[in-house]
Write a structure and sequence with these properties.
The complex is a heterodimer of chains A (408) and B (252). Chain A is an alpha+beta fold and 408 residues long. Chain A has 2 domains: 200 residues, no CATH class; 177 residues, no CATH class. Chain A contains 16 helices and 14 strands. In chain A, the strands form 3 sheets. In chain A, strands 1, 3, 4, 5, 6, 7, 8, 9, 11 and 12 form a 10-stranded mixed beta sheet that branches. Chain A has a two-stranded antiparallel ribbon with strand order 2-10. A two-stranded antiparallel sheet of chain A has the order 13-14. The longest helix of chain A has 41 residues. Chain B is α+β, with helices and mostly antiparallel strands and 252 residues long. Chain B has one domain: Clam (outer membrane lipoprotein receptor (LolB), chain A). Chain B is built from 5 helices and 13 strands. Chain B has a 13-stranded antiparallel beta sheet with strand order 6-5-4-3-2-1-13-12-11-10-9-8-7. In chain B, a hairpin with a 2-residue loop joins strand 4 and strand 5. The longest helix of chain B is centred in the first third of the chain and has 17 residues. The radius of gyration of chain B is 18 Å and the shape is globular. The two termini of chain B are 35 Å apart. The relative contact order of chain B is 0.17. Classes of the chains: A alpha+beta (408), B alpha+beta (252). At the A-B interface, strand 4, strand 7 and strand 8 of A face loops of B.
Chain lengths: 408, 252
């Protein structure tokens, strides 16, 4: 402890005896940490953006289906509207909104073309609260109520069918008894989303659809939103208990691709952390090793003046603790500054065509992840100090005799 | 409902025959009913030739057809050898196709009904739904013109609300002896999409009949499908098995 008191100021002063070398190391460490933190912030913002925009379209944080529906989404796997027990469970305060939908494969026909689609019978009032689709209507209006027997279709579908707002289209659905239900619907609204979504979904009032296919009281799914990610597991359990014969799933199971993306993005940050750590380590070892060779005379002198090898080791380690610690602080500060300067969101509208495929919105909001700002700097600092032990180890082996013999 | 209206129409038709000067036939529904009655009768058996002009060339097919009432029809191709044996059966609102090479009967899904029938400008819907025009649309008499010593009624038909019809309107021309002279299909913007024209009318099976029909689409100028009826007999009786799936696959 006594020796630390002596060595600490010495180490600090040593750092600034060669400012250029110190600054180079500082830059290496701070750029490394800055890139890790900035990347992590961006990745988190980006995946959050993609995840939220996708989940807000239709999926929600979870859905309830009849057993077997997800394996074979057809008319044989429908479920009744929720009973009192399930409604009570759905009115759990952790669930902000829930909505019932009837979803069936259908065929959409215009004067010029016939295309396969997925027909969704919705409750417009609830959809306004839970889904972003009503807000994506660019022409016309969204559906008025559950009895609204008009349709909302996607922009790309309008082009492909050569139809337009206010025109009629025919929807054909195979009914429960295998017979064909078909009728015409007026196009009252057109929504603009990504092309895949636009080509797939056609929306109409749920009651109107149930009457058309003679499936009164039948639904395909209940979607619900849970704003607090931590509450989701409890909500799922609660719902499963309330409806033991139904299939309750969270969004990661409903959209495995999205779930995988969510985890793989975090993984990408760790890969970058690994790459940056190797770079930073090479930088540290290189400069510190050079420093040790340049300072052979100095270490010999210190030893001759009575410092033990352990003291030399401690001195160099202290120097690297201070040096890397300072670099880490600068890196944290610049990363925080970068994130703060982008707090209005990064506008990616120049790439919106490409982004549409991810169903991401044009603006990515980056934010400081508190855990990242603890874990990553500590990791860089610890690993940096550990790799700097090797030059320190070399330095403590230097004897006064060896130092005297060493040609400058 | 449909049967009653048909019976009424027959009465109207009879009245029109007895008193040709009576303007009863001005009712567009009655005119259309009489025209379809003239076209398919209660039953019909015909031998036809179909010529398809496409962008790549011309095809000639021969076929034999049987119809019973509004909702049963069987068409069997007889030539050329490549297409012979192909058959289409309409039974109510179901349509089946038989392909001899696959030796399989397929019930057409709704999505395929609007597709081309044997590569022609006709669709399966034209086969299956031609009669529903009378009940699915509201009809107004646009004009009466004269052509070749006959009066021709031009009737505009607009689909009723909710009825599964893609067209904005149809314009059907019927001659005063109830020969279907043409049918134009308009989209909902009033643009002509396709039209069918009776090019030649002669007496066939004891009645005036549009023996040559040409269907063409506006989108494919220079391409058309022509159906020529070589011979036909009407109001004949058929064995009951004729319009069954088993007969479609294994003709007796």
């Amino acid at each position: 402890m006594e020796s630390l008191k002596l060595l600490a100021p010495l180490a600090w002063r040593n750092l600034w005896r060669n400012p250029r070398r110190t600054i180079i190391t500082l830059i290496v460490v701070s750029i490394g940490l800055w890139s890790i933190l900035a990347l992590s912030s961006f990745m988190t913002g980006w995946t959050g953006n993609v995840r939220d925009s996708t989940l807000q379209l239709l999926i929600g944080q979870g859905q309830i289906h009849a057993e077997g529906y997800l394996d074979d989404p057809n008319i044989d796997h429908l479920m009744p509207e929720p009973d009192e027990e399930l409604v009570a469970a759905l009115n759990n305060p952790a669930i902000s909104n829930w909505v019932e939908r009837l979803e069936l494969p259908a065929v959409l026909q215009s004067e010029y073309k016939t295309l396969p689609v997925t027909m969704l019978g919705v409750d417009p009032e609830a959809e306004f609260r839970i889904s972003s689709v009503p807000g994506k209507v660019v022409e016309g209006r969204y559906l008025n109520d559950m009895d609204d027997d008009s349709v909302i279709i996607g922009l790309n579908l309008v082009d492909r069918l050569k139809t337009a707002l206010g025109r009629r289209v025919i929807l054909m659905v195979t009914g429960a008894d295998g017979s064909l239900a078909e009728r015409s619907f007026d196009v009252v609204g057109i929504f603009d989303s990504d092309v895949g979504f636009e080509d797939t979904y056609v929306f109409t009032g749920r009651n109107a659809m149930q009457r058309m296919v003679k499936l009164e009281g039948k639904i395909s799914q209940i979607a619900f939103t849970v704003p607090e990610a931590e509450a989701l597991t409890g909500v799922l359990e609660n719902l499963s208990n309330a409806a033991p014969d139904l299939d309750v799933r969270e969004w990661r199971k409903l959209s495995p691709l999205l779930g995988m993306m969510d985890t793989s993005m975090a993984f990408a940050v760790y890969i970058w952390l690994g790459v940056m750590m190797v770079m930073v380590s090479i930088g540290i070892i290189n400069t510190q090793l050079m420093a040790v060779f340049e300072r052979i005379h100095e270490f010999g002198l210190l030893r001759a003046m009575g410092l033990k090898p352990g003291h030399v080791l401690a001195l160099i380690t202290l120097e690297s603790i201070l040096l890397i610690g300072l670099g880490v602080l600068i890196g944290m500060f610049t990363a925080a500054l970068t994130v703060w300067s982008l707090s209005d969101g990064i506008d990616l509208s120049a790439f919106s065509q490409a982004l549409e495929a991810f169903q991401a919105s044009d603006i990515v909001y980056v934010e400081i992840q508190p855990t990242d700002y603890i874990i990553f700097p500590l990791a860089v600092w610890a690993i940096g100090v550990v790799v700097a032990l090797w030059p320190a180890w070399r330095a403590q082996k230097i004897s006064p005799v060896e130092a005297m013999r060493h040609a400058t | 409902m449909k049967i009653i209206s048909r019976r009424n129409t027959l009465k109207l038709g009879a009245a029109a025959l007895l008193f040709p000067s009576v303007a009863l036939a001005q009712d567009p529904v009655a005119i259309l009913d009489a025209a379809f009655d003239n076209w398919r009768a209660t039953s019909s058996h015909a031998v036809m030739e179909m010529t398809i002009r496409t962008a790549t060339g011309i095809r000639n097919l021969e076929m034999e057809s049987w119809t019973l009432g509004d909702d049963k029809a069987l068409v069997r191709f007889t030539a050329p050898a490549r297409d012979a044996g192909n058959a289409t059966l309409q039974d109510g609102n179901r349509t089946y196709v038989f392909n001899p090479r696959l030796n399989q009967v397929i019930q057409l899904p709704a999505s395929a009904m609007s597709q081309s029938w044997m590569g022609s400008d006709f669709s399966y819907d034209d086969l299956a739904k031609s009669e529903s025009v009378v009940s699915d649309y509201t009809h107004t008499l646009l004009q009466t013109r004269s052509s070749g010593g006959h009066k021709v009624y031009v009737i505009q038909s607009i689909p009723k609300r909710g009825v599964p019809v893609v067209w904005g309107s149809l314009v059907v021309s019927v001659r005063d002896d109830y020969v279907l002279m043409g049918q134009d299909f308009y989209d909902q913007n009033g643009q002509l999409v396709r039209s069918m024209v009776a090019d030649r009318v002669t007496t066939l099976g004891g009645r005036p009949y549009p023996v040559q029909l040409t269907m063409s689409s506006v989108a494919t100028p220079g391409q058309w499908t022509k159906i020529v009826t070589k011979s036909a007999e009407f109001d004949v009786s058929f064995p009951t098995y004729l319009f069954t799936r088993s007969n479609l696959q294994n003709p007796r």
